[in-house]
Design a protein that fits this description.
heterodimer; A: about 100 residues; alpha+beta; Ubiquitin-like (UB roll); B: about 375 residues; mainly beta; four-stranded antiparallel sheet
């Protein structure tokens, strides 16, 4: 059940097998951290791909709220507003 | 179905499976599975229905365990991968080893940072083994160049030997409940104390069921010329134990280098052991001339096996889990290189040929006859 703040979470292609193939998920959360906590409850396999077992976002995973990286906002405490989109984007690293 | 030889080849870019008849004249290659993702550990489990396991070490999205029950034609992720308890503070960085356990379903798994996990259901659920993972020494171990990894799990009844880089050799006499560092005679070249209680950079340990108590170890050698604190420590790279790993002694005399990563024992002869010496500074073939070295007397003397290898200008590396030997009556050895070549040594290593020459860099090679 969504909370008062309904946001969309964009799932990149490689992670869609971990959430039933969904490209977008609706979550109700007032912060990015709360959104991840909801994912841990509702989509645990997807959450494990984004966060390690300590709860930290994996080193090569970037989270954007709309067009801004959360590190340029308030990190996991970044507040969310209805209609915001969280994008999970793998970092660029080659080799 | 006639017996088939199955090779699981873990590479920097995914898991490959090669299959051949017992004649081993040609191998069919399948894969890559989990394409683009490094695979450091594999196991061809011959208990019951043959099952191939591979670790998929995704730096983006975390570690997965792959499992195939159709001899490596298709793989699925198990329901979960090893993970540290939430309040532990450590996070899984890599999966380095699998070993089969009792019954048909028990599996053991060594990971980075160095810890041991056990599954009772073929890899779907995992539980951390506290006796080593939370050992008093665990927070003092330091990573080697490859990371702080538990890479060797060797079971002998109720005994269990673990190899940790850099932690050393740990021995359990109670089936894996408790462990003690057991490194008497195992040298370390990278600290003033040449023979510490623990902290050695063990590279691989092997044993043989026909020689109870005997173990062979490839340790981090290459310290014969060291002139700093503690002095030189020649020959610490290739070791043997005759007392279940309580004490160790050098068997490196006669080798061109005591540095190397893998060590393998002949399946029908506990006295026949193979190493692949590398130059310690570059970790490549000495003089650009690859050779596997074999002892047929338990390490008293060594001879090179190089028929079929390039005679010059060959500078590859073979990593700790990238050499194995099959169990056929006249076995073949296999090793994979960091330059992506898979070599096979027929007649127990007498004659070598390149089976695949352009795979991605190879991390591990495991073989079984099913």
């Amino acid at each position: 059940m969504l909370g008062d703040v309904a946001v969309r979470l964009h799932v990149p292609g490689p992670l869609r097998p971990y959430c039933g193939g969904e490209q977008r998920l609706e979550v109700g959360a007032a912060t990015v951290r709360a959104a991840l906590e909801e994912l841990a409850r509702t989509q645990p396999a997807l959450h494990r791909c984004i966060c390690d077992e300590t709860g930290a976002v994996r080193r090569h995973v970037n989270l954007f709220v709309n067009t801004s990286h959360v590190r340029d906002l308030a990190g996991l405490e970044t507040p969310l507003s209805t209609g915001d989109e969280i994008a999970i984007i793998p970092a660029v690293s080659g080799g | 179905m006639p017996e088939r030889v199955i090779l699981a080849i873990g590479t920097k870019k995914g898991l490959f499976v090669a299959e051949s008849s017992k004649r081993r004249h040609s191998f069919d290659l399948r894969g890559p599975f989990a394409p683009g993702v490094a695979v450091y550990a594999a196991l061809v489990d011959t208990r019951g229905r043959p099952t191939v396991y591979g670790s998929s070490c995704n730096p983006f999205f975390g570690m997965k365990v792959l499992r195939s029950t159709d001899r490596g034609r298709s793989f699925k992720e198990t329901k979960s991968a090893p993970a540290f308890p939430k309040d532990d503070g450590r996070a899984l960085a890599n999966i380095w080893s699998f070993a089969s356990g009792d019954g048909k379903k028990e599996l053991w798994c060594g990971v980075e940072p160095a810890a041991l996990f056990r599954s009772e259901d073929g890899g779907d659920a995992w539980r951390m083994v506290d006796g080593i993972s939370n050992h008093d020494h665990a927070r003092k171990w330091q990573p080697g160049a490859g990371g702080l990894c538990l890479h060797t799990i060797l079971r002998d009844g109720n005994r269990m030997h673990l190899g940790i880089s850099t932690g050393g050799h740990y021995l359990s006499n109670d089936g894996g409940k408790t462990f003690e560092a057991s490194n008497a005679g195992v040298g370390a070249g990278f600290q003033p104390d040449p023979y510490p209680e623990f902290g050695q950079c063990v590279h691989k340990i092997v044993g043989h069921p026909d020689a109870p108590g005997r173990l062979y170890m490839q340790n981090h050698g290459g310290w014969a010329e060291w002139d700093g604190p503690g002095g030189p420590r020649p020959g610490i790279g290739v070791l043997r134990s005759d007392d279940h790993g309580h004490t160790w002694y050098s068997i490196a005399k006669g080798l061109p280098s005591d540095f190397g990563f893998p060590i393998v024992v002949h399946p029908q002869d506990a006295d026949t052991v193979y190493v692949l010496p590398l130059e310690p500074a570059t970790r490549t073939c000495p003089g650009g001339q690859p050779a596997v070295w074999r002892s047929e007397n338990g390490g008293k003397s060594w001879a090179s096996l190089k028929k079929g290898f390039p005679k010059q200008e060959s500078y590859f590396t073979v990593l700790r889990d990238a050499m194995d030997i099959d169990s056929l009556r006249t076995p073949a050895l296999y090793f994979g290189t960091t330059t992506g070549q898979l070599w096979m040594g027929r007649d127990a290593g007498e004659s070598w040929s390149c089976v695949f020459d352009s795979l991605p860099p190879i991390n591990c090679v495991k073989v079984a006859v099913v």
